[in-house]
Amino acid sequence: MRNLWNLLVQYHIALVFVIFQGIALTWFVGSHGYPRGKWVQHSLEWQGEWDQRMSQWDRLTELDDLNRELLTENATLRAELHSARGDATQNTYQGAEVIRSTWNSATNQFVLNKGTVHGVKPGQGLLQNNRVVGRVIEASENYALALPIINSNMEWSVRIGATGPVARLVWKGVDVTRAVVYDVPRSAIISAGDSVLSSGFQGCFPSGLLVGSVADEAPEFDGQFLNVPVALAADFRAIRYVQIAATPGQLEIDALTDGKGQPSP
Prior knowledge:
Strand content: 25-35%
Largest sheet: 6 strands, antiparallel, barrel
Helix content: 25-40%
Shape: elongated
Structural class: alpha+beta
CATH topology of the domain at 90-257: Thrombin, subunit H
Distance between the termini: 86 Å
């Protein structure tokens, strides 16, 4: 206490000066129109910027919640659509968030915020807005590990066009927007822009889902088949939400093929 008193005594002149300066400044701003107007303007600017930033943050939070709600709603509507069409294989869908992902490696992967307690199992396919994204390979209680199309260790069964030949799609490990469809018969009629669709033979997706489109590049001929360059439909740099597709009876089908060789592509 004595030290505080000594400090006040030592600097009392400066302290009194600051107090009177504050009083004078307050009187000047309050009694003169121009400085008062400037102060009000600056206050409005600062308050407005702060309110705008807080409003943007609130909107981002609301949009995040809306995205989750829309993801769940889209999954429900997709399942109802398959049921209404009377599809032979009526997949069920649920939404999930990608909480970790890579796209600049040869062996890219996703981590999802859904696991076995949510019904997620290895082998289920991933979609984004009706576009093929990848496949779940491992699942813990609350999380799942998935491999996307842009993983050079994976092959995908696709069809060029709704009635075109079935072939295998492989990512070359370089460009996240491009892949190649191998083993296309040279008699096949292919044009740039033709849709590349899931065949449904792998079990993780229904048939007819968009994978990409034939790129505007000439196919390579390896002596027997055509190798067709494809522009992938999904933007793997920006994926945040996906839908997990579950095919009824898939475990039973897999059990039939275990030890009997791999199913057809």
